[in-house]
Design a protein that fits this description.
Elements (H helix, E strand, L loop, with lengths): L13 H13 L6 H13 L3 H11 L12 H13 L1 E8 L5 E14 L2 E8 L4 E6 L3 E10 L24
Antiparallel strand pairs: 1-2, 1-5, 2-3, 3-4
Length: 169
């Protein structure tokens, strides 16, 4: 489907609408979370009034205690670099307190252990590395295109991990 294309009429139940709201609310630090929230708002805008009223009532019965997201500027830069496949320059604070500036070719986002990571080819270390997004203090998308690094280079995903496009088929 082309960017900006419209969807045919979608029929959701109140529970399905609330499931979408809950998922987006529970993951404010996820990549593209702002876009997901905007998508949910668009879906809610086209629900029939009766379903929307039931969804609103049910949504009041679902509470979410989500972690605060990383800096909006950092998340936007990471999302743009991934989407455009451009090298991103990050200022990164490692777990031992060391601050480094690195140029990274983004390969994938991964959520493990309740934390989001940028996984990419680190030009400083000349190797694939996992960067905890909450430790990235600054991020700037460069004009340099990424090389040809692939998801296969990252290795096997954790046992419970799966791509978000897995439709349960």
């Amino acid at each position: 489907m082309a960017v900006g294309a419209s969807l045919p009429p979608v029929s959701l139940s109140a529970a399905q609408a609330v499931a979408l709201m809950a998922a987006v609310s529970a993951a404010p630090d996820a990549p593209y979370a702002d876009s997901a929230a905007a998508g949910v708002r668009k879906i809610l805008d086209v629900l029939d009034p009766r379903t929307l009223a039931r969804a609103d009532e049910l949504a009041g019965r679902v509470w979410v205690d989500a972690p605060p997201p990383a800096s909006r500027a950092v998340r936007s830069a990471l999302e743009d670099a991934m989407s455009e496949q451009r090298v991103i320059r990050i200022r990164y604070l490692s777990s031992d307190g060391t601050m480094t500036v690195r140029n990274v070719e983004p390969v994938l986002f991964a959520s493990t252990g309740g934390q989001w990571h940028l996984v990419g080819w680190c030009r400083l270390r000349d190797a694939m590395r996992w960067f905890t997004v909450s430790r990235i203090e600054r991020a700037t998308v460069t004009m340099t295109a990424c090389g040809d690094h692939t998801v296969d280079e990252v290795g096997e995903p954790p046992a419970n991990a799966k791509p978000v496009h897995d439709r349960g088929e």
